[in-house]
Amino acid sequence: MKFKLEVIGFTIESCLIAQAAGAHRIELCDNPSEGGTTPSYGFIKAAREKLTIELYPIIRPRGGDFLYSEAEFEIMKADVQLCKDLDCNGVVIGILLPNGTVDKERCKQLVDIAYPMGVSFHRAFDRTADPFKALEDIISIGCERILTSGQKPSVNEGMQLLVDLVQQANKRIIIMPGSGVRAENIVALANQTNALEFHTSARININSKMEFINKSMNEQLITVAADSNEIKRIIEQLEKN
User: Minimal CA–CA distance to 223: which of 69, 70, 14, 5?
Assistant: First the structure.
């Protein structure tokens, strides 16, 4: 099979849904409203025990930007080691400097701690000032792939940069388009970019199953879940292409 589909797992149920639907890798995350932060020890451990596909937890101690304090960096190093101790296949990282370049020194430290696990560089890449320089920097620190939407909110908008990045990468690193990847655009995305790995949340919202809801709290208790049918449709489209 020439392609791989990575699916975000925000819950253990979503991880299992994605695996059963044919996903090849899980990016394990907490806090979907923050764009994904480091999952808990218990979540990582349970996912590793229950999944047979590749498991890559994100190493992101908080939401917001990708400029981290020394205290936050110490947390990131400890979390990478934890993922290695739990036999994860890899981790997902991304640290920037204030000028919008990749923090090569600290990212390289995380790559070294992670070894022999694989390391993906996440969409902090889409916040860099020069994506072509960032690409070379990320190759130099030893990452195996870059998750990117082409520095736009979605892959449809960032298509031309994705094409250019795949060409510049020239198989030295995997360019993995993500953000807005769905069954209806996956074939065009694959054909135009020549990418071989893709990233999707295939996200749906699930309403609470609580029988009693305190209406005076004025809140919606919604859980993010993976859509099995959407994952299957994406894979079917890729297989037919």
Answer: 14
How far is the C-alpha of 21 from the C-alpha of 3, rounded, in Å? 15
The residue count for the chain: 241
Cβ atoms 185, 210 nearer than 8 A: no
DSSP 30: B
For 86-99, what is each residue's pLDDT tens digit?
999 999 999 999 99
- Verify cis geometry, omega within 30 degrees of 0, for the bond prior to 32: no
Q: Backbone phi, then psi, for 239, in 5-degree steps?
A: -65, -30
- Alpha-carbon distance of 205 to 184, in angstroms, equals 20
Show the domains of the chain with their CATH numbers.
4-240 (3.20.20.380)
| Separation of alpha carbons 84 and 165, rounded Å | 30
